Automatic annotation (TrEMBL):
Boundaries of every DUF222 domain copy: 42-353
Region ranges (Disordered): 226-246
Species whose genome carries this gene: Microbacterium endophyticum
Entries under Pfam families matching the protein: DUF222
Name used for this protein in its record: DUF222 domain-containing protein
Residue ranges, compositional bias (Low complexity): 235-244
Amino acid sequence: MNIESLTDHIPGGHDPARVSATGVDLQALDVMIDGLTHARRAVAAYQALEATLMAATVDLARGSSQSGTAELPMREVTAEVAAALRVSDRTVQAQFSSALTLVEDFPSAHRALQSGEISRSHANVITSEGARITDAAVRKQYEDLVLERARVETSGRLRGIAKAIAEKLNPQSLTERHRQALDGRRVWVTDLDDGMAELSAIGSAVLVHGVFDRLCQFARTTLDAERTASDENSAESSAENNAAPIRTMDEARTDAFFDLLLTGDACVHGQDALEGIRAHVQVTVPAMTLAGAWDAAGDLAGYGPANPDTLRDIAGRTGTWDRVLTDPVSGGVVAVETYRPTAEMRRFLRVRDEHCRFPGCRMAPWRSDIDHTIDAARGGATVHTNLAHLCRRHHVLKHQTTWSVTQLDSGKLKWVSPTGRAYIDTPAPMLRFIPDPDPAPDPPPF
């Protein structure tokens, strides 16, 4: 399929019945989307072929009997491939390793890539999150479970799902692995060009996400204050005396990071508002884990499995907790209760949704709007079966374009695009937990 054959399918003129609310020619768009999906499947097939060839090249080097040192044939082959592909030999080494893992350890994912059912980024998520599973039978179970979700989810959303499934199936507990991983926590500096440098840190996921969320809140508060001050300056001063241009979110986040570390303070207008900012992370913890009777992992929204020891420590430091009741089979949220009077429905939706509910979007719920699936103005009830989180971008898209959404059972949303394509978005908690098998019956008494 080429551009000429695509455009041959686009009829001349415009059919008024096939024009979107914003004036887009839906017939032409339909053809282009078909072409794009065909192209993506073709790209995936070629990427699967490349992985096959790279794995075969590694086997070729491994099978060399002309040298007493196994490393030399691999170096020779790597250098040859790197020169032909115009990349470094270290890049080729990494690609060899990735291809070999995909072809040998995850053959079903490799076949799905070959058929265009998944993309290379999906395959990378499957292999990277499953790499810790050493038992072949368990790895196959993991691969089948994650592939089922990979066919309908973006690679970004898939990572959290894959991480949780790998954790559930891994015979080594997350607590043990987390304690080992903590030994690798560190902070380091990488010097860059133009007088810049990069400061990186590795630490507990709960703490890192908490730090990032707090920086986001600082940045948002400071930017709001700067916009207010800028508006006041514009009204009272000439253009040349106005304040400096408003910073971007990334710039404000970075400035807050260094201000807090170097001075212990983020000095901006609206200091009183800053003093009330607290990091916001959402965790789901099994009650028996909290009591110390189980060692099952909890779940950190936006990341995946969280270490039980860390979550128990958090529990001892806060007075506000949500009790989340889930279906024991599906893992879907049934209800959310709180020990303090609060906006119970918002809590329920925040736990159920975890992010914006437009397909593929991962915007956190506390940065999104709660939308009536059926508009309140059209009789839509304010109940959890008619509410879902949408980020501002997709909230506007729903109301201002011909995209439509229907809420199905268990919080599932069915989105229909202007060209008529349907997409089902399923709440994350229902995807992340694997039911334990029914226990074997007790032996008969003798």
